[in-house]
Amino acid sequence: MKIGEKQKLGNQAGSILLQNKKELGQHWLRDKGILQAIVEAGEVDENDHVLEIGPGEGTLTRQLLDTGAHVTALEFDSELVPKLREQFANCKKLAISEGDIRRFDYTTLPKNYKVVANIPYYLTSNLIRALSETNNPPSLAVLLIQKEVAERLCARPGDMSILAVTAQFYFECSLDIEVPASYFTPPPKVDSQVVVLRRRDEKLFDVDEKAFFHLVKAGFSGKRKTLRNSLSGGLAIEKTDAEELLHRAGIDGGMRPQELSMVEWHALYLSHEA
After folding, report:
1. Mean per-residue pLDDT for 162-166?
2. Judgement on whether residues 195 and 215 belong to the same structural domain of the protein
3. What is the rounded (10 degree) CA torsion for 230, 232, 236, 240?
4. What is the 3-state secondary structure (H, E, C) of the chain?
5. Tens of pLDDT along 242-269?
6. Residue 1, in any domain of the structure
7. Is the pLDDT of residue 7 over 80?
8. Which of 60, 99, 147, 224 is the most buried (most CB within 10 A)?
């Protein structure tokens, strides 16, 4: 779904209007229509506690606070923190902290918190893994990220990746609005898209997660190779053993790892553990 198909745009949200730092991947988003669509995708209301990563100018922060939700805003840029605190000095439901999300302790947040954020592209893979593996995961994460990566997270057999398997193991993944590069200041080189990650109430499969993902990583150790070859190298086993492993799972050894569905990865896991 593209911008314009969902709502009219053009109004800019109030902000502190700062210069961006290219090295931090800062691209400001000021359009109220888009910001509101992101908040709506997160189904945010006054009962929620929201973690916002990289509040930047505070445009999305303002929209989140307008819902009545409690917001924890984590900003990496030390120059922005005092300006944000000044801007939101009278907001009792907002806690602004300086820090790196890659070192953030998610257990400090209440259970079933939500994540709503416009994040720098370089953080995406690390953040998805962290949100997947933390002992205190969000009930919902709404992230504005590079369009290509959003599509990868929601991929289907034929275009799967380790990132897609990880995200889909822990979350129900769906795509929301697309945001053209022209809506950012300065414009990035690619378009963005909102991805919605809804935490599964129960495990997708009853597996030993460490063993399951060890197998997945082995399968993707040679993406251009057939599964019989990548599993042989990734698991340090003979090709004949890899072929037998795949045969028991009902999987053609000539397939590539990106072609497997989540169900087939589970079948392969059961075959490996047998």
Report:
1. 96
2. no
3. 180
4. CECCCCCCCCCECCCCCCCCCHHHCCCEECEHHHHHHHHHHCCCCCCCEEEEECCCCCHHHHHHHCCCCEEEEEECCCCHHHHHHHHCCCCCCEEEEECCHHHCCHHHCCCCCEEEEECCHHHHHHHHHHHHHCCCCCCEEEEEEEHHHHHHHCCCCCCCCHHHHHHHHHEEEEEEEEECHHHEECCCCCCEEEEEEEECCCCCCCCCHHHHHHHHHHHCCCCCCCHHHHHHHHHCCCHHHHHHHHHHHCCCCCCCHHHCCHHHHHHHHHHHHC
5. 999 999 999 999 999 999 999 999 999 9
6. no
7. no
8. 60
Q: pLDDT tens digit string along 115-163?
A: 999 988 889 999 999 999 999 999 999 999 999 999 999 999 999 999 9
**Length of the chain, in residues:** 274
**pLDDT value for 233:** 95
CA 39 to chain centre: 16
Tokens 């209440």 belong to which residue? 110
Pairing of strands 114-118, 140-146: parallel
Task: Return the CATH number at 106.
Answer: 3.40.50.150
**What pTM value is reported for the model?**
0.89
Position 12 in a domain? no
Looking at the fold, whether 234 and 186 belong to one and the same domain comes out as: no
Query: Where do we find the tokens 């998610």?
Result: 106
Residues 249, 172 within the same domain = no
Q: Who's near 10: CB < 8 A, 6+ residues apart?
A: 31, 33
Write out pLDDT tens, residues 217-237. 999 998 789 999 999 999 999
> Token pair 């939101």 is at which residue?
88
